[in-house]
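Retro notes
What went well: the complex prediction finally ran end to end.
Inputs used:
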Amino acid sequence: MFLWQYLTPLLLTTVLICTAQECHEFTDLSLSHAIIGTSLRVRLLLYTREISTCAALLSHTNLTAHPQFKMSRPTTFIIHGYRPTGSPPVWVNEIRELLLDRKDMNVVVVDWNRGATNVNYLKAVENTHKAAGNLTAFIKRMQDHGASLNDIHMIGVSLGAHISGFIGANLNGQVGRITALDPAGPMFTSLPPEGRLDPTDAQFVDVLHTDIDALGFRETLGHIDFYANGGTDQPGCPRTIFSGQSYFKCDHQRSALLFMDTVNRTCDSRGFPCSSYSKFLDGDCMDCGQFGDAGCPVFGYDVTQWKDVLLKLNQTKTYFTTNAQSPFCMTQYRVEVMIWNKEVRWGYLTIKLHGNGTEAVAVIDHKASEFRRYTDTRLLAQFNKDIQPVKKVSLKFSIGNALKPKHKLRILRIRLTHVVRKERPLCRYDVLLEENKEITFNPIPCGESNF
Amino acid sequence: MEIKMDTMRADEYDAARFSSNEREAADVEAHRSPDATETDQFLSEPAFNGNGGHTSGQRNRGNNDIGHREGAVCRVKKELCQNVFHGVRLWMIIVIILLIIAALIILSLFVCAAIHEDVDEKFDSSLFKVPRYFNGSFRLPNFVFTEELLTPSSNKRQALAAELQNKLNDLYRSSPALGRYFSKADIQAFRSGSVMADYTLLFHLPEEELGQLRNFTLSWEMVFNVFRQFLYDQESAESGPMYIDPDSLQMYSRH
């Protein structure tokens, strides 16, 4: 009996090792492959909760060969983009782990590294159509085995986003969802909808833009388009070419990191519908009334909660800002300031919220704010974290010009309203702000207002 | 690059002048002896006298331009190094003038900043004639009520009233927005309920901008909330007898 206690697990492991299939890895190529060029080869790596660390290489034709590939489960395809150096994408392992943690599903990592690795970007673009044809055939075969297109979600990064679009179009837009993470811009920007991803490619298409000024796509492509930090320069990414290759890919790659943060529900970033980023920064787009009680759509994996209302709106362009690292989400407050200075004042406000032994900072410096006597100046303050409850508030006013005389901002009332949480706004009355001098006070719940 | 081109053009022009007028050239030569030979050679050049091949003329002109450019640099250098008087050179004077100009600009900026008047700090309180009253009540939950507080002449009542009045006077006088308009605060009566205190606040407003002041700076909302936030700030004294319950504050404006 005693012996069996030890023998059983030992025997079991031996059996497992013998029966277990070989683990397949994402194709790892080198720069030399990129220089010579590679021809397209699409490998499908299956991960499920049973084989979450050891991928099975799916056969394109014989789906029954893999007992773990259950058609009753939803299937998520992860499709990467252009690989100029041939290395596997850094995010690919983490994203499939997070997806499997989240839901019992088939995660199919589409490895078309042979085909995407080429110094000639145009060749990789050519291969997107071929890869899409290949995957369309595979999904049709899945349908033959009982899979429903409704349960198929394709997450496409860069060129992969357009591949998802092509597959979706081949399947008459019946695919459940396409998530496009910074869809590629070069060679696609001026193309008609057939030549790129568009909202008709799936039942629901959600898009994130992080690099519209370089590698990404500038215009809207989905039912909802999120522009993180305006879609251009991502915080924490190098601004000069001296930082090496991360200068080129940091903004673009950030899209995958932002999405992964939402799969494991680190925190919520709400996308605010707006016509331009500058209007959003001005605080003109904080109205989420059209989405009812749910509020503005939360970017990421769970945006499907807003699917119905977004489909009715056809196409929605939204903005949000992020921190330089995870947790990426920021906390928005609407700030209203009324002054009694006789003259108009221009300047920048820095606001700090204190509570629970930590502090959150927001600097409103995208442009100089105008403060006018007896008029509410409405600003959007974006804090790096959410403080609850707020015990103290610090304010600092600066003109940003050392040569100008020291002006004071004579505040009658400052009101801080949390944009998402429905709670009573915080107020402070009669504050004298000297330039570059921080003032800290206890905010009080705002009373009724007549002005 | 453009500057170079300019000097070259100027040299060509000079050269043309020398060739047409030898006397002038000689005058200039007196100033710059080092390149005198080059100029001589230039003058003898047939291309500039109207005859001779075009190509050879251009080639030669190119050669001579270099000489002239050097010449011009030397001339400027020499002129800059000229003695204006006893050891003071021209370049020193130019540098000093530039420094003075820069110093004046910086100084004027500082003076402007220093003499800048804050228009919001200037006011004439003799013009503040229109009275504006607020009255209301608040509660001192920790103060024990006695009958004595109802008699106006009693010491206890007077002491408490004086203390509360000082509190209100200090509060409104130190207010950046309201201070200049504030006249006085009065505690008028005490009532039971631990102790309820009735107060009156008096402000004086100028005729000018009366409407705006009433609606904003001296609105009920401002006067009330300046008091209210003051009460929220008195954290440390929460158990003391002079603690005022912020939620008990009532205020009405009287017209």
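What we learned: Chain A has nine helices and 19 strands.
What to try next: split runs per interface for comparison.
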